[in-house]
Amino acid sequence: NLRSAEEIYTVIRDYIKNRPDEEWVRGNGWEIPVFPEGNPRKEWLDIIEPDRPVILYSADGHSAWVNSKSLKLAGIDRHTPDPLNGRIERDPDTAEPSGTLREDAMILVGKFLPAYSKKQIETGLINAAHKANHFGITGILDAGIGEIDGLYAYRNLSRSKKVNLRVSASQYAEPADWRKSLEKMKTLRFIDKNCRMNTVKFFADGVIEGRTAALLDPYIGTEDRGILNWHPDSMNSAISAFDKAGFQVHVHAIGDRGIRTTLDAYEYAKDINGPSDKRHMMSHIQLIHPDDQPRFNELDITASFQSLWAYPDDYITQMTIPVLGPQRAEWLYPIGSVEKTGAHITGGSDWTVSSLNPLDAIEVAVTRREPGEIKGEALLPSEAVGLSTMLKAYTIDGAYSLFLEDKVGSIQAGKRADIIFLDRNLFSIPSHEIHSAKVTHTFFDGKLVYEK
């Protein structure tokens, strides 16, 4: 929620002052629209910290801001080529790296970061689980974790009952070594009472604000169609192989080309392997071409929307609509259109990218306005959906997407008592007040795990 460069600089300075002994300065959360063209410069960090390497990931996780020390450590200079599926932003006059790295270019510096300790990982996970319970969340899909930095922690803490969450964890598959990853994941997958790992995560593309989302037609004023991380033939082969091996496949796809390529791969897998109940899903799905909107239902693909993003904030008005143009801007977050086709819809946060509170996202899906706005500008109000639709997306339909609809997601005799209480009836208040409702009690398996 830092809205100016000076606010961000102040936070960085205070952090560095209070941690003089840390080898690296690392963090995340800066908003891309704060900086001109979304490109903060290395020199601005050099003034604050010239001696230690600094890497700060953007709020959306698709860009990294680094100082000169980090670039030198990684050996990145004007002669360094862009990596596959990544981009090094450069000074337009000198071609020197300007300090912003996109997508896989982030790895050039990130690979030098020291690993988190087991204690740090477990402490972070316990704190995150408490925060989730605070917002009435009792089940999650963690859409991509490392074997060491997340999977073991989830499994061990779930078995020891130190977290009160039903967890569906996933592992990453990358274009270069997905076959090796498939064999490894077969040995890692498990299904416990409250924790499972049988989901694989693909990245089809990047994000529109970084011009790395894959588009069918170029970004306005350029010949650039973004970055499609997977060759379509490779994605077809990979998704069909994971499908055949019994994995649920979850794909990050934002641009219309990224979405279409992914739908094509799901269709290919269905043709090759036959229909099955894998409940594959696609997340974010920001720009869906009208021809592809019915395909979610036709292919039985769950549409996981992060509906908190579906209002006209700076990302939309400054970084998205101007590079898409008016025609494509009519396709942004078409939740209503996809719902009308009969597709399964779930709600997600993409936390820590944005708010973990489901009520924030539910309100925006209903109003298409910034939370709390009564008559402000709305983003494509024809794509708004009803409150009942979004409550189902966060309860029974969310449970369905994680193969838990027979256990949780509705209040029925015989199901586990994952139940929350709110301080008001959402159907009795104006829609612009939904985000202000508070969870007063969260029960997990009938046990009180949060009380306001």
Please provide a written account of the structure.
The chain is α/β, with parallel strands linked by helices and 452 residues long. The protein has two domains: 5-110, Roll (Diaminopimelate Epimerase, Chain A, domain 1), CATH 3.10.310.70; 118-441, TIM Barrel (Alpha-Beta Barrel). The protein is built from 17 helices and 16 strands. Strands 6, 7, 8, 9, 10, 11, 12 and 13 form an eight-stranded mixed β-sheet that branches. It has a five-stranded mixed β-sheet with strand order 1-2-3-5-4. It has a three-stranded antiparallel β-sheet with strand order 14-15-16, covered by helices on one side. Helix 9 (256-273) links the parallel strand 10 (248-253) and strand 11. The chain starts with a helix and ends with a strand.
From the structure provided, what is the oligomeric state, counting identical versus distinct chains? single chain
How large is the radius of gyration?
A: 22 Å
CATH superfamily of the largest domain: Metal-dependent hydrolases
What is the 3D shape? globular
CATH fold call of the largest domain: TIM Barrel
Contiguous runs where pLDDT drops below 50 for at least 5 residues:
none
Our estimate of the beta-strand percent is 15-25%
Alpha carbon gap, first and last residue: 24 Å
Record field, number of beta strands: 16
Please supply descriptive tags for the structure shown above:
452 residues; Diaminopimelate Epimerase, Chain A, domain 1; 5-stranded mixed beta sheet; 16 strands; globular
